[in-house]
Amino acid sequence: MDNLAQRLRQYKPSVDVKPRIRAEGRLVRMVGLTLEAIGCDMPVGSYCNVETARGDFVEAEVVGFASERTFLMPVGMAEGLKPGGRVIPNDKALNIPVGPELLGRVLNGIGEPLDGRGPITTKDTTSLHGKIINPLARKPIRETLDVGIKAINALFTVGQGQRIGLFAGSGVGKSMLLGMMTRFTEADIIVVGLVGERGREVKEFIDEILGQEGMSRSVVVASPADDAPLMRLRAAMLTTSIAEYFRDQGKKVLLLMDSLTRFAQAQREIALAIGEPPATKGYPPSVFAKIPQLVERAGNGNEGTGGSITAFYTVLTEGDDQQDPIADATRAILDGHIVLSRRLAEEGHYPAIDVEASISRVMPQVVSEDHLKLAYSLKQIYALYQQNKDLISVGAYNAGSDAAIDQAIALMPRVKGFLQQNLKENVDIVTSYQQMNLALNNQLQAKGGES
Ligand SMILES: Nc1ncnc2c1ncn2[C@@H]1O[C@H](COP(=O)(O)OP(=O)(O)OP(=O)(O)O)[C@@H](O)[C@H]1O
Ligand SMILES: [Mg+2]
User: Fold this and answer.
1) Does residue 175 have its Cβ closer than 6 Å to ligand 1?
2) Closest atom, ligand 1, to C-alpha of 201
3) Is the N or C terminus of the chain more exposed, i.e. has fewer CB atoms within 10 Å?
4) Which residue puts its alpha carbon closest to atom 5 of ligand 1?
């Protein structure tokens, strides 16, 4: 795994040529990343090998057509392509190999190993596009999932099968928080998708965050920013397919995707390249269709199967703009969002969770009445303090003029202390509840956090 970064850069797709003479086409045009071929008889979504000047092949996917022209997009590097190059369908189905053999492995966007530990042979295969679950057959979210972060466990309790967004501008601590959850979450299997982020972080994530122990229950799919857009897109889909496979085996799966924004941007690159008009802030409509298609695949399985996929997706809010179209679209379809605040990060308050802006939509269904009440009262105290912060900090607030504000001022140092957590510290859900109670001066003398 030493030269993983190097391997990531040098990746070339394996070529499996099974010619079907009838459908063979010719390359006639290449603009940017889009290839145009004529004479192909291939449906959208199928794969082919395109001949290069060196005589080898580049793998490409059919992404669209216009009358007799077929639009293709290379999966890996598009180097050495030439006019008139042969376009040969390769019969590679969208089925991808899955099985327990994947545990501990690092794959690229098309499921090939990046870790230099030999080929992966599995018995089962699954579809890259997943299968649709009837919404009425899905098991409801009823149980908590301990993520080991006290602010989340206490205030935004996560349910098994919930899908949550982690929203923040760049460098506010999204990846670090995901890393903490990877180490602490009580899950059977962890599937991590590192999509379109820095290549350097892939190795760091594997060596430092997961470590040997974490890796034994994890599968990592990595497609860094310099991969072709199709590869990044497929990495996100592959990550989800692998999570689905383990869920259908009855496992409690944690899916982490860093980042959903890069997935959307990969789709934007592809859609614009084949001529789809941009709609919202340069994003074509197909982007807004792809996001729910991906995200809806996570969650609980059918009633009776037992498995679940609890998913965290990081969403980059450009310039800390919460109205970013991708942030907007994802906020509406996820079951909760955790917003990280740049102001808190600048104060050195980590994890920089913005208590006022974050929400877990399933929390009322998974925690006890007492827990919910306590969480609400902490949020109220926090919000009240923030509203009056300016007055308080310039000394314009007179103690004794409002009992609620007095109480907020008195409790705030402990509340702030409670919300911060060391990178190496794992706080379970019951302890999180007890510490929240303590921070609020034992407002409720209740016991136990879970319902
Ligand atoms: N819990 C934490 N404790 C201490 N420092 C932290 C913590 N979280 C983040 N940081 C600091 O913030 C920096 C950026 O964090 P991170 O890489 O997680 O941000 P990000 O939101 O993923 O950024 P990007 O959008 O660029 O990927 C870290 O390098 C670290 O210095
Ligand atoms: Mg990051």
Assistant:
1) yes
2) 17
3) N
4) 350
Asked whether the whole model's pTM tops 0.85, one would answer yes
Q: In sequence order, what are the residues at sequence separation of 6 or more whose Cβ sits closer than 8 angstroms to the Cβ of residue 290? A: 233, 263, 264, 267
Q: What sections of 185-275 are H helices per DSSP?
A: 199-204, 211-215, 229-248, 260-273
Q: How many residues does the chain have?
A: 451
Q: Which residue among 175, 176, 349 is best mutated to probe the pocket of ligand 1, counting the most ligand atoms within 8 A of its Cβ? A: 176
Q: 176: Cβ below 6 Å to ligand 1? A: yes
Per-position DSSP letters for 58-86, written without gaps between them? EEEEEEEEETTEEEEEESS---SB-TT-E
Q: Distance from the CA of 197 to the center of ligand 2, in angstroms?
A: 7
Q: CB-side exposure of 419: number of CA atoms within 13 Å?
A: 26
Structure tokens at 77: 């590097």
Q: Which of 45, 46, 238 is nearest to 127 (CA)?
A: 238
SS3 assignment, position 208:
helix
Q: How many angstroms separate the CA atoms of 314 and 385, rounded?
A: 29
Nearest atom within ligand 1 for CA of residue 259? 27
For residue 330, how many C-alpha atoms fall within 13 Å in the half-sphere facing its CB?
A: 33
| Nearest CA, atom 30, ligand 1 | 173
307: tokens are 């498995």
Residue 124 near residue 66, CB atoms below 8 Å? no
Does any ligand 1 atom lie closer than 6 A to the CB of residue 277? no
Q: Establish whether residue 55 lines the binding site of ligand 1, counting it when its CB lies within 6 angstroms of any ligand atom.
A: no
Contacts (Cβ under 8 Å, ≥6 apart) of 208 = none
pLDDT tens-place string over residues 131-188: 788 888 888 999 999 999 999 999 999 999 999 999 999 889 998 899 899 889 999 9
Integer Cα distance of 375 and 358 in angstroms: 12
Helix (H/G/I), strand (E/B), else coil: 201: helix
pLDDT in tens, 259-317: 899 999 999 998 998 888 988 888 999 999 999 999 999 999 888 777 999 999 999 98
409 CA from centroid of ligand 1 (Å): 29
Q: In 10 A of CB 176, how many CB atoms?
A: 16
Q: Which of 166, 175, 313 to mutate to test the pocket of ligand 1 (most atoms within 8 A of CB)?
A: 175
How far apart are the C-alpha atoms of 195 and 233, rounded to whole Å? 8
Could you count the other beta carbons within 10 Å of the beta carbon of residue 380?
A: 12
